[in-house]
Amino acid sequence: MSVLVCITGRNNEKLMAKLQDALPDVELKLWPHCDDLESVKFVLAWKAPQELWQKLPNLKVVQSFGAGVDGIPMSILPSGTVVARIIDPQLSDDMAEYVLSHALAHKLRHQNYCAEQAKKNWKPRRARKGVTAGVLGLGELGKAVAQRLSDNGFTVRGWSRSAKQLDDIACYYGEAQLASFASGLDYLVCLLPLTDSTHGVLNRQLFQNVSNDCLLINVARGQHLNEQDLIDALNEQELGGAVLDVFTTEPLPEKHVFWSHPKVTVTPHIAAVTNLDTVVAQIAGNIRACFTGAPIKNGVDVTQGY
């Protein structure tokens, strides 16, 4: 049995070294340098090529190298394959701080004052009054963000596919309650998993329910957002601004309109960065579990996609 690491778009030398130190007796192979794919039972994956999966007849476990599993085509995996994701407690704190800081910056008009400073204008204004925030997605990260906003004086709503109950959070669920959830929001945060049903959920129809001064914060996946709908909503004063940390194409292309739009703040997918040592410990634990028949930790429901 062997383990295949297939993580594209990054240098994996440090990761491979840490994994080998943690698993000195395990054969680790790095894609595409793997001649015997039939021996692979465990794959550590991130943005793996689609053609890989059908070449793994004895696959037992797929471990995502991140909190999301949207890049893993669950419908074509061998029957019974377990899919797991990374859960890093520090990620929740980092994500909550990121969202809170941008919400407060919008409330206090920091972007406006930066623009006025560039023009040497002295133009004081009161802080924005709206404090109603909505969080799309109430998984581990979504719950942490909702709680942090609530703890800091925001009136918070949460929306999820299925019903949930959280202290101090008004919970909505299902398509029928999405418009009610969004109605009049001053801040809209997306932390949904990316599935067929959530692809493009941040669109003009949704934006028309929120307040005209609403700040959109997307820290989930770029594919959740209809980019043209956002530009149109911003240009036509249907939204107050947008903070975007994730994009359909990353890095964001140099000529993309988001770079220069006065109402858009761009950050390079840094809202919550996983600690490598934490990641390696979880991955190594699941590799040992795969080889010994023990339960895999942080598994997802492959039928739901999250």
UniProtKB/TrEMBL annotation:
It holds the Pfam family 2-Hacid_dh_C. GO terms for molecular function: NAD binding; oxidoreductase activity. The keyword Oxidoreductase applies. Keywords: NAD, Oxidoreductase. Residues 102-271 form the D-isomer specific 2-hydroxyacid dehydrogenase NAD-binding domain. This is D-isomer specific 2-hydroxyacid dehydrogenase NAD-binding domain-containing protein. It comes from the Bacteria. CDD domains: GDH_like_2. Gene3D superfamilies: NAD(P)-binding Rossmann-like Domain (3.40.50.720). The keyword Transport does not apply.
